[in-house]
Write a structure and sequence with these properties.
The chain is α+β, with helices and mostly antiparallel strands. It is built from 17 helices and 22 strands.
C-alpha cells in the first residue's frame, strides 16, 4: 500500500475474526483527501471516495484539523492515517482524533509530544542508557546565554530547533564570532516553521553517517526493530538516497544499535511504527539523533528486504491487534536502495520545478518497485512538496543493487519538469558511493560543482520519446480527469 505526504488517507476499518484461534483480519476502504491544487492527484483518483478539504493553501486544508475531522465524519471513517507530512507528527491532531472517537494510526499524542521536543527526548534517552550527543538538556532563545553553553560544549556546535526537524532552524557554527548571528537566524527560521523559536545545542560531529532503525511496537509491550537504513546521502539536510543494509555496520554494531532503538521505543512508551535515528562517527560510536513518530518516506527499502508491509502493520496495531513478530524472525534478505525523484533542479540548489507532466516511461524488470504519484497530463503543484515518485530496487548484493538502480534510473524518462535523475545516476556511479564511503556531507564533498553530461543513454531515451510521440501520440498527450484510469497508468505497479 502506498502512502504519500499529503494523501492523508482516511480509513474505514472493519475487523473480522475468521473463526480460527488467534487470527483476525482487517478490511478497509480508502477515503482520499484533496484540495483544489491536487484534486487530480493519484491518491485522490485511486481512493474509493474523495472529500474536498478546501483551498490549496496547507493552512486552510491539510493543516486545518477542523476540516480533516469534518471530512472523516462526512465519510463515516473510523480511523485516519496521517501519511508522512503535515500533521503526521502533530500531537494536538492525534489528541483531537482521540477526543472525536477516531483512531489515529500512529503513536499516542503524549509520545509524539515528548519525542517531538528534542530536549525531552534527549533526557528520556539518557535515562534509558541510549547514547546521546553531548549538548544541552534544556532549550533556549537568548543568543548570549546560548553562546556561553556553546563555549562549554566546544566548537564546532550544531544549533537545532527544539520543536521540529527536516533541517529547519539548523546551523553549524565553527567559531564564537559567528555564533550570535547564526543563533538568531536559526531561531527565526524555527519560529516561522514550527511556531516555536527555541533552539538547543549539540556538539557537531564531523562527517557522520546517518543510520536509522525502523521499529514496530504494539499496545501489549511487544517491540521489534526491522533492521537499519543508511540515509547519509542528503541535500539541504534532507535525504535523497537510502539503502539497507548499511555498508558501515558490522553484525555486532547492528546488534547494539538495534538494541538501543528498541530501548528508545520502550523508554518513550512507543506504539505503532516509528524510526529511531542515529549519527555514526568514523570510530564506530553512535549517538541518538531523534525519533520520527511516523512512517518514513524511505520505508519501502525495509519492506523490500524483510518482506513486511509496514502500512498494513500500522493499521493492524491501530486496530488493537498484537504483533505476531519476534526479533529472531526478522531477517534481511539481499540489498535494497531507494532514490527519491523530485521535480527539482539540481543545478539551482535543488529548487522546485513544478509544471505539467507530458510523458513518462517507467523502468521495469525484476526487483524494481516504483511508488509513483504522477501521470501524463498531471500538473505538479507549487503548493506542496514536489516529490514525484520513489524508485526502489532490490538485488542479492550491494554491487548488484547499485547496478540495477543505475539501469532503472537510465530507463526512467519524465518530461515536462526537471528532475535529479542524472544527478542520482552520477552519485551511484561514483567510486566513493560504490566503496560505501558515505557521510552526510557527501554531496558537498564530491558533487558541489556537478554538471550534467549528455550521454548516449540520454539520446536513446530522447529518440524513444520522439518515436512514441510520433507513432503513439495519445500516450504522450495530456489527459483529462474523465479520460484517466490510474490502473492503466500504473502498468505493472500496484500500491
Amino acid at each position: 500500500m502506498t502512502i504519500s505526504a499529503r494523501s492523508g488517507l482516511v480509513f474505514s476499518i472493519y475487523r473480522h475474526d475468521d473463526g480460527h484461534a488467534g487470527t483476525q483480519q482487517v478490511f478497509l476502504r480508502k477515503v482520499g483527501r484533496k484540495t483544489y491544487a491536487d484534486r487530480d492527484a493519484l491518491h485522490v483518483l485511486e481512493a474509493d471516495r474523495a472529500v474536498l478539504l478546501g483551498p490549496s493553501e496547507p493552512s486552510r486544508s491539510y493543516l486545518d484539523m477542523d476540516r480533516i475531522i469534518a471530512a472523516a465524519r462526512e465519510s463515516g471513517a473510523q480511523a485516519i492515517h496521517p501519511g508522512y507530512g503535515f500533521l503526521a507528527e502533530n500531537a494536538d491532531f492525534a489528541e483531537r482524533c482521540s477526543r472525536e472517537g477516531l483512531v489515529f494510526i500512529g503513536p499516542p499524542a503524549q509520545v509524539i509530544r515528548d519525542l517531538g521536543n528534542k530536549t525531552v527526548a534527549r533526557r528520556t534517552m539518557t535515562a534509558s542508557g541510549v547514547p546521546v550527543i553531548p549538548g544541552m538538556m534544556e532549550p533556549g532563545e537568548n543568543p548570549d546565554a546560548l553562546k556561553q553553553e556553546a563555549e562549554k560544549i566546544g566548537f564546532p556546535v550544531l544549533i537545532k530547533a527544539a520543536a521540529g526537524g527536516g533541517g529547519k532552524g539548523m546551523r553549524v557554527v565553527r567559531s564564537p564570532e559567528d555564533f550570535v548571528d547564526a543563533c538568531a537566524s536559526a531561531s527565526r527560521e524555527a519560529a516561522a516553521a514550527f511556531g516555536n523559536g527555541d533552539v538547543y545545542l549539540e556538539k557537531f560531529i564531523e562527517k557522520p553517517r546517518h543510520v536509522e532503525f525502523q521499529i514496530l511496537a504494539d499496545s501489549f509491550g511487544n517491540v521489534v526493530h526491522l533492521l537499519e537504513r543508511e540515509c547519509s546521502i542528503q541535500r539541504r539536510h534532507q535525504k535523497i538516497i537510502e539503502e539497507t543494509p548499511s555498508p558501515a555496520l558490522t553484525p555486532e554494531l547492528r546488534r547494539r544499535m538495534g538494541a538501543a532503538a528498541v530501548a528508545a521505543a520502550r523508554a518513550s512508551g512507543y506504539v505503532n511504527a516509528g524510526t529511531v535515528e542515529f549519527l555514526l562517527d568514523s570510530q564506530g560510536g553512535f549517538y541518538f539523533l531523534e525519533v520520527n513518530t511516523r512512517l518514513q518516506v524511505e520505508h519501502p527499502v525495509t519492506e523490500m528486504v524483510t518482506g513486511i508491509d509496514l502500512v498494513r502493520r500500522q493499521i493492524e496495531i491501530a486496530s488493537g491487534m498484537p504483533l505476531d513478530l519476534s526479533q529472531e524472525e526478522i531477517i534481511g534478505r539481499g540489498h535494497a536502495i531507494e532514490c527519491r525523484i523530485y521535480a527539482e533542479d539540481p543545478l539551482s540548489d535543488f529548487l522546485p520545478s513544478p509544471g505539467k507532466i507530458s510523458f513518462i516511461r517507467e523502468p521495469k524488470g525484476p526487483g524494481i518497485r516504483n511508488d509513483i504519484g504522477i501521470y501524463p497530463g498531471y500538473t505538479v503543484p507549487v503548493e506542496y512538496d514536489p516529490i514525484l515518485s520513489k524508485l526502489i530496487v532490490h538485488a542479492q548484493s550491494r554491487p548488484a543493487c547499485i547496478s540495477r538502480m543505475i539501469r532503472a534510473l537510465k530507463d526512467y524518462v519524465i518530461l515536462g519538469v526537471l528532475t535529479p535523475i542524472p544527478f542520482l545516476v552520477d552519485i551511484l556511479s561514483s567510486e566513493a558511493f560504490s566503496a560505501g564511503k558515505t557521510s552526510t556531507d557527501f554531496i558537498d564533498t564530491h558533487f558541489s560543482d556537478w554538471m550534467p553530461a549528455l550521454k548516449d543513454t540520454d539520446l536513446a531515451a530522447l529518440a524513444f520519446v520522439v518515436d512514441e510521440a510520433v507513432n503513439h501520440g495519445s500516450q504522450a498527450a495530456a489527459v483529462t480527469r474523465q479520460e484517466y484510469s490510474p490502473w492503466k497508468a500504473l502498468g505493472h505497479f500496484r500500491p
